[in-house]
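Appendix C: a fully annotated inverse folding record. The material below is reproduced so that readers can follow the format used throughout the book. The structure is listed first as tokens, followed by the designed sequence.
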């Protein structure tokens, strides 16, 4: 979806105001992680766009068509192009069992072509909200963090860039879930002859889950257990002898 600057500003304002943060049905696809169940918006990312390794989920964004390109032949001309899209929530993560803490980082990757006189940028941002997940719906309750990455190639040429940002979620009740919004903005501008383009290629959400440790009995506990078993044995033998 390609929008003018005015439409893009209005679109973002609605998202920031929380108009789209109410609970709604989403075409969620479920994928399994080590400590988490992931549910992603297939209408946004694309069916089959996600792959999971451990507790990290990667979206290859070819289905998004998140790309802008400006090409000019005249040395006196100027032109620009924008792309904007968002989803609420784009990803929901639910713990399979209780954990001491959960941290998450987000990585944006983009390819670019930057001509002399060109400017390009790609951003991926989104709020992180705690809430509940049931019946294919995420109901947010509180904001617990946010992501905001911005990629801007600085010199003419062709290449790939990536940027990551972390967010600490602290203690997380196993009965709850978190939902992560996704907002994508791309911009390309060309002054004079040449071609400038930028495309988002990948988004990665990596979770670091610290499970609740299983208590290990202290040596004193083992000693008390053995003493108790010995006492039970003595009592049993005495009762048998009395009979």
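Designed amino acids, in order:
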């Amino acid at each position: 979806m390609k929008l003018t600057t005015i439409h893009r500003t209005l679109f973002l304002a609605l998202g920031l105001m929380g108009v789209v943060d109410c609970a709604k049905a989403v075409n969620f696809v479920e994928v399994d992680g080590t400590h988490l169940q992931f549910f992603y918006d297939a209408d946004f990312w694309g069916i089959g766009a996600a792959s999971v390794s451990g507790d990290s989920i990667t979206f290859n964004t070819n289905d998004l068509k998140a790309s802008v390109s400006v090409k000019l032949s005249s040395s006196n001309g100027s032109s620009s192009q924008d792309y904007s899209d968002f989803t609420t929530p784009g990803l929901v993560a639910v713990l399979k069992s209780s954990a001491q803490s959960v941290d998450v980082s987000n990585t944006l990757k983009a390819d670019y072509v930057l001509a002399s006189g060109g400017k390009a940028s790609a951003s991926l941002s989104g709020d992180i909200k705690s809430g509940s997940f049931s019946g294919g719906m995420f109901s947010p309750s509180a904001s617990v963090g946010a992501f905001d990455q911005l990629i801007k190639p600085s010199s003419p040429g062709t290449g790939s860039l990536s940027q990551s940002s972390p967010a600490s979620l602290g203690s997380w009740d196993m009965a709850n879930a978190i939902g992560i919004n996704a907002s994508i903005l791309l911009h390309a501008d060309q002054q004079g002859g040449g071609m400038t383009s930028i495309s988002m290629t990948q988004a990665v959400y990596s979770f670091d889950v610290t499970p609740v440790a299983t208590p290990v009995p202290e040596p004193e506990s083992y000693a008390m257990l053995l003493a108790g078993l010995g006492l039970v044995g003595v009592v049993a033998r005495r009762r048998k002898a009395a009979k």
